[in-house]
Amino acid sequence: MVRKRQADIRPDGHLLSTRRHFVIFNPASGRGRGASRIKAYKRLLNDALSDVAYGETTRPGEERDLAESAIADGYDVIVAVGGDGTWSNVADRLVASERDDVILGILPSGTGNDFGRNFGYNPQNPSEAVNVLAAGHTRAIDVGRVDTLSAAESHPGRHEARHFLNLIGFGFDIAVIDAAKGARFLRGELLYKLTALQQLFRFPGIRADLTSGEGERRKLEQLMLTVSNGRYFGGGFPIAPDATVDDGKLHACMIGDAPPLTRLKLFTLAERGRHVTSDRVEIIKDSSFRLTFEAPPRFEMDGDVRLSQGAVVEVRTIKSALRVAAPKA
Hints:
Mean pLDDT: 89
Radius of gyration: 20 Å
Shape: globular
Low-confidence stretches: 1-15
Strand order of the largest sheet: 6-15-14-8-10-9-13-16
Order of helices and strands: EEHHEHEHEHHEEEHHEEEHEEEEE
Largest sheet: 8 strands, antiparallel, barrel
Number of domains: 2
Number of strands: 16
Structural class: alpha+beta
Distance between the termini: 33 Å
Number of helices: 9
Strand content: 25-35%
CATH class of the largest domain: Mainly Beta
Helix content: 25-40%
């Protein structure tokens, strides 16, 4: 239902945004935390916005369908409430629509919320995020695109090229996500850190070849390989310390395989972005990469697991492809 107000002034005296907003809630985000925040977010949004409608997902990936319907209905801002996976699914549909007049809004309620960290969002402060949305400031950002067809594990028959907001990851990253699925009581950063520590002593490593768009080549025995648009992953690890979401580059971080205790040292360094000082770590910046594996790989895309249709994964950046509601610089 659309909620409209006659006045253009919020109760705190600030002007209400005149854009039409469609807000998509993912109750399953944050391992169920998303459902508990719906009431609070609706109260904040009703006070902050003059024209707002709501939708909720009932199945994995439904935010894509809701976003497409909202675009077709002429909404100016499509707001995704959840974490990296929810935001990514909505952003993919906005970019695919080729509409440059539709804005992505993000409200944190997920597990990692890593993409939001690029703009300083605090997952524990919903009112701050709503105020940013109501202020109406936007920022043009790059998005990544995996041109190789892949399918989400929740929809194994639907192969497609996909856009991503923050990062794709191979190897250790996937092992941690798999292990985290079995955790019953942990969430967020603590969940990632504890499951990651566990996998440091179990994960066998991967083999991959990397070729950058400018022709740099690496033959890799890897603990982990990530290709980042943003700076953070894993609940706040600055895996690509120099990355910004508008620099026109992807940052491929290659962490070489190592014995367990060396892995532990790299993990500790990565919490502060100091893993780049190790001779086992290299970051290459380029607008595109070709990644070749021994078999079609499983990989993480903004927190969700996908299976590539082929053993070669082609990824590139699209400069200034999306406008995002963000704090004023």
